[in-house]
Amino acid sequence: MKKLVEKDYEIMIECAFMHYEKGMDQTTVAEKLSISQSQVSKLLRKAREEGIVQVTIRRPHFKELERKLQECFGLRYVRIIQSQENESRESESSLKQSLGIETARYFEKVVSDRKKIGIAGGQTMYEFVNALTLPSLRLKLYPLVAREAHDLQIKNIHASSLVSLWWCKYTDTEAYRLELPPVKDRSNVNRAINRLLEEILGVDFIFASVGQVNDGLSFRSLMEGLGFKYDDLLNKGVIGDFVGHPITKDGKQVVKEETKYSRYVLPMPLAEIARMAESLERFVVLAAGGQKKLDAIAAVLHGRLCNILITDNKSAESLLKLREEGHF
Question: Model's pTM, two decimal places?
Answer without folding.
Answer: 0.79
